[in-house]
C-alpha cells in the first residue's frame, strides 16, 4: 500500500498492516512518524534524515526492506542495516560501497534476495558471499571484479539459483573465476553477466557451456572474442532455454549454428 504522511497515524492503529510503501515529499511533516506496530515489509522513497530515528524501533522485525532514493547519510544506512538481523529481502541504491556489503554480510545472515544498485568492488562482494550463504537471488553492480571474488561465490553460495552481475571497471580475464563459480554454484539456473571487453574470453564461454549444466536462462553482455566462443558454449550438456546477447562479437551465422546445436533453446535475443 502507498500512503502519504497524514495516513500513517491512522494505519498505526490498524494492527493488520504488515507491508507498507511510503513516498515522502518536501511538504510532508517528517519528524516523529508513527508506523504500524506489526510492520515487517517496508519501502522507503525519499525518506528524509529527520525521520530516520522513527524507523529504528521497527528494524528488528523487518523481513523486507526497499531503500530507494533515500536521503540518509552513509552512516545512517549502515546503522539501519545493522539493526535488521531478520531481513530476508533487500533492495538498496546505497552509497555505502564495500562498507555497506560488509555490514550486510555481517548482520543480515538470513538474507535470501539482494538487489544492490550501488557501486562496489570485489572486496565488498567477497565479504558479502562469506557472510550470507542463503541467497536465492543476487544482483550487484561493480566497478572492479576479480577471479578471487567469483571463486568466493562458488565456495560460499552453493545453493544460489539466480545471479545477476554488471561490472563496468575491470577488463581482466575472469575465465578462471567464472569456472570456479559455476563449479561451486551447481544449482544455478539463471545467469546474467555484463562485463568490460576482455572480461570473458572464448575459453570462459566454454566454461559456461561445460559447467553451467542447469542454466535455463543466460544473458551475456560484452563477452567472448569470436564465433569460436559460441561454439565452445554449445558443447556442454545444455538445458538452456533462453539466451540474450548484448554487444557480443558473434556473427548471425554463429548464432544460427548455436540454435541448431542446442536442442533445448526456445529464444535467442541479440
TrEMBL record:
GO terms for cellular component: SCF ubiquitin ligase complex. InterPro entries: FBXL15_LRR, Leu-rich_rpt_Cys-con_subtyp, LRR_dom_sf. It comes from the Eukaryota. Residues 96-257 form the F-box/LRR-repeat protein 15-like leucin rich repeat domain. Coiled coil: none annotated. GO terms for biological process: SCF-dependent proteasomal ubiquitin-dependent protein catabolic process. This is F-box/LRR-repeat protein 15-like leucin rich repeat domain-containing protein. It comes from Tanacetum cinerariifolium (Dalmatian daisy).
